[in-house]
Amino acid sequence: MGTETGPEATTPAEAPGLTISEAAAKAGVAEKTVRRMIKAGSLPHLKQAIPGGFRYLVPPEAVAQIAHEVGDRVLSDGVPSPRSLELAGQDTLLLDGQGTQIGVPVAGRALNELQRQRDALRDRLAEVSQERDEWKGLAKNAQDTIRALSETIQYLNETNRQLALPEHKEAQEEPRVERVPRRGFWQWFVGR
């Protein structure tokens, strides 16, 4: 018996691979999805004879294919699927494993990029901390100024109270006497 893919059965010792449940767990999909792919013939698999029947084994390299065909996934071991790497525009290294190519992120470039981003974030954090400290200093100066002005106003109010003259009573007005308008010469002469 050989280790060919498809309907021919193999012996347990000859066929290394992942069971359907293991492959589904690594790809982050349901077991039904892996079974459908095997039934459709779109997934390489081995049929292994076991006492009382058979079971399907999926090559470990096919896990990336499962995740790729299902969608943008991150595999359970932390490796992104080739499709998610393509969409992210990330550099990938293609490994050839028994005729199947899978995408693996190039660790050195990704690590360097993450370190660069971390350093940029640390620099920005230092700038923001410095700005915060400057604003705290300005706020403290403003509080001190407000406190000093408040004390000055209180002092001036107290001084005004002490210097205030006693209130004087309003002078009583003298009664007004109406004067009779004087008559001019002609008014006197004519008699009006």
Structural write-up:
This protein has 192 residues and is an alpha+beta fold. The protein has two domains: 9-105; 106-161. The protein is built from six helices and six strands. It has helices at residues 20-27, 31-40, 62-70, 82-88, 107-163, 185-190, and strands spanning 9-10, 18-19, 46-50, 53-58, 92-97, 100-105. The protein is rod-shaped and about 155 Å long. Mean pLDDT is 74; it is low at 1-13 and 82-106.
Largest sheet, spatial ordering of strands: 1-3-4-2
What is the ordering of alpha helices and beta strands? EEHHEEHHEEHH
Total of domains: 2
Which structural class do you get from the secondary structure elements? alpha+beta
> What's the mean pLDDT score?
74
| Share in β-strands | 5-15%
Largest β-sheet summary: 4 strands, mixed
**Percent range of helical residues:** 40-55%
Tally of extended strands? 6
Alpha plus pi helix count: 6
Low-pLDDT runs? 1-13, 82-106
List keywords for this structure.
2 domains; two-stranded antiparallel ribbon; 192 residues; four-stranded mixed beta sheet; 6 strands; disordered N terminus; rod-shaped
Put the structure in a nutshell.
With about 190 residues, the chain is α+β, with helices and mostly antiparallel strands. It is built from six helices and six strands, in the order ββααββααββαα.
